[in-house]
Amino acid sequence: MNDIAIRIKDLNIYYKELHGYSIKRMLFKGGAKKAPMFHAVKDFSLDVKKGEILGIIGKNGSGKSTLLNTVGGIFAPDSGEVELFGQSVSLLSIGVGFEKNLSGRENIVLNGLLLGFTEEQIREKMEKIIEFSELGDFIDKPVKTYSKGMYSKLAFSITAFLETDIILIDEILSVGDEHFKKKSSKKMKELISAENRTVLIVSHSISTLKALCTKMLWMHDGRIKMLGDTNEVLTAYQKFM
Question: pLDDT at position 171, please?
Answer without folding.
Answer: 76
